[in-house]
């Protein structure tokens, strides 16, 4: 079904189901997504491509005391009506029915088309492997993905439709001391590949050759590729659902929780960010947010539900993965750059060795990272990869400096961070 046909079918289904939904409000969230995933085998210059084109929907019904949802793939209007009836049959008591906001009634919908080019993707993947990976380095995996998603929230005669396009390349390289994974969002061709090339070369260089043990007395400098999982951990900590489950954290709003050098924002249209949105998936305008202002905790990332539970206004961060219920999530979450000066001597961590997970326990980031010992501003020797166990809240409370090299990472949930300066491991 085309987007126009989907919206027309949704309006018809809502109207037809009204007699079955006595006492209930209702809405439909529609998703049409095209996807292309191309796996490039660099050693043999072969590839495998997977194409997808899905159409799904989620129905939600509610009143002041109950709520029900149902979701699944759809093929025609009858499927939408079926989902609405299923949602009404699955209602359960709810004390926090999310409020609704008025939707636009303008009938003009954004255009959407899905015309994947496997040959172009193959050409780009081969070129990235050739130009970005250091010579002689084994490429364990190179995956180029493209997604084009059209979504629409339909409530009564109102509709809010949006289109997102995203193309990324993920590369896993083998080094003498473990695998390195990096990724970039592709926007304007080779200019975006330069950052990937620079980081891969730096990582392979740092993880090859003779090493010494790190000096635990030196402060630690986490370059963006290493700091990114820590920034993602902070993004998790500042989600509304986490605040709901952590009353002490929620009560800290307005207090200076971190050093003055930490400012954290989430901007819907940051020029370097991963996602550009004007609205969230619950029909609310995506506002520019400052979550930490020079160390003072200002607020959290909220969906309608988490905002209602904490008694604060929602601000457009109710996002969905496909046809699912919305949850609190960031768009372009980042630690604001400052350009603080580094000390003369420090441990510089530039490469993160791939591990199974970076947050094995909520609120605690685990990393294995390698790099250099720096004395009087000069790299003097490589250090053996070191294990870092970083409790998110305590680590940011001990932050000593923030660089000016802000970088966003698909491998860290799209979060952005500059270089971070932390105290020595022994202090």
TrEMBL record:
<feature type="compositionally biased region" description="Low complexity">
    <location>
        <begin position="88"/>
        <end position="111"/>
    </location>
</feature>
<feature type="domain" description="Metalloprotease TldD/E C-terminal">
    <location>
        <begin position="220"/>
        <end position="422"/>
    </location>
</feature>
<dbReference type="InterPro" id="IPR047657">
    <property type="entry name" value="PmbA"/>
</dbReference>
<dbReference type="Pfam" id="PF19289">
    <property type="entry name" value="PmbA_TldD_3rd"/>
</dbReference>
<feature type="region of interest" description="Disordered">
    <location>
        <begin position="88"/>
        <end position="115"/>
    </location>
</feature>
<dbReference type="InterPro" id="IPR036059">
    <property type="entry name" value="TldD/PmbA_sf"/>
</dbReference>
<protein>
    <submittedName>
        <fullName>TldD/PmbA family protein</fullName>
    </submittedName>
</protein>
<dbReference type="InterPro" id="IPR045569">
    <property type="entry name" value="Metalloprtase-TldD/E_C"/>
</dbReference>
């Amino acid at each position: 079904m085309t987007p126009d046909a989907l919206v027309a079918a949704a309006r018809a289904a809502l109207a037809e189901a009204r007699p079955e939904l006595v006492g209930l409000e209702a809405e439909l969230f529609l998703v049409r997504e095209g996807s292309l995933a191309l796996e490039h085998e660099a050693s043999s210059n072969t590839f495998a491509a997977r194409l997808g084109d899905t159409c799904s929907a989620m129905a939600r019904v509610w009143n002041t005391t109950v709520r029900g949802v149902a979701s699944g793939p759809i093929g025609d209007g009858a499927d939408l009506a079926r989902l609405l009836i299923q949602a009404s049959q699955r209602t359960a008591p709810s004390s926090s029915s999310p409020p609704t906001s008025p939707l636009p009634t303008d009938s003009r919908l954004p255009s959407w088309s899905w015309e994947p080019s496997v040959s172009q993707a193959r050409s780009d993947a081969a070129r990235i492997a050739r130009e970005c990976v250091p010579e002689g380095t084994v490429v364990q995996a190179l995956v180029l993905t493209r997604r084009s998603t059209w979504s629409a929230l339909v409530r009564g005669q109102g509709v809010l439709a949006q289109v997102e396009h995203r193309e990324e390349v993920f590369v896993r390289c083998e080094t003498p001391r473990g695998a390195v994974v990096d990724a970039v969002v592709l926007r304007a061709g080779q200019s975006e590949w330069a950052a990937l090339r620079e980081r891969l070369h730096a990582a392979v260089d740092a993880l090859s050759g003779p090493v010494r043990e790190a000096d635990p007395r030196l402060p630690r400098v986490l370059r963006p590729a290493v700091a990114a999982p820590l920034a993602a951990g902070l993004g998790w900590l500042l989600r509304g659902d986490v605040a709901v489950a952590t009353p002490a954290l929620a009560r800290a709003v307005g207090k200076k929780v971190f050093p003055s050098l930490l400012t954290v924002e989430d901007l819907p249209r940051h020029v370097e960010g991963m996602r550009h949105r004007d609205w969230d998936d619950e029909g609310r305008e995506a506002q520019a947010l400052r979550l930490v202002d020079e160390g003072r905790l200002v607020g959290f990332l909220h969906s309608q539900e988490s905002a209602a539970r904490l008694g604060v206004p929602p601000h457009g961060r109710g996002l969905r993965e496909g046809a699912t219920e919305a949850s609190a999530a960031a768009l372009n979450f980042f630690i604001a750059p400052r350009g603080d000066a580094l000390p003369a001597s420090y441990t510089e961590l530039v490469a993160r060795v791939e591990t199974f997970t970076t947050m094995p326990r909520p609120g605690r980031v685990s990393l294995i990272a390698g790099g250099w010992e720096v004395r009087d501003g000069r790299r003097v020797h490589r250090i053996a990869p070191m294990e870092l166990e970083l409790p998110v809240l305590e680590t940011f409370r001990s932050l000593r400096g923030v660089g000016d090299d802000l970088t966003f990472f698909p491998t860290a949930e799209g979060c952005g961070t500059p270089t971070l300066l932390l105290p020595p491991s022994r202090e």
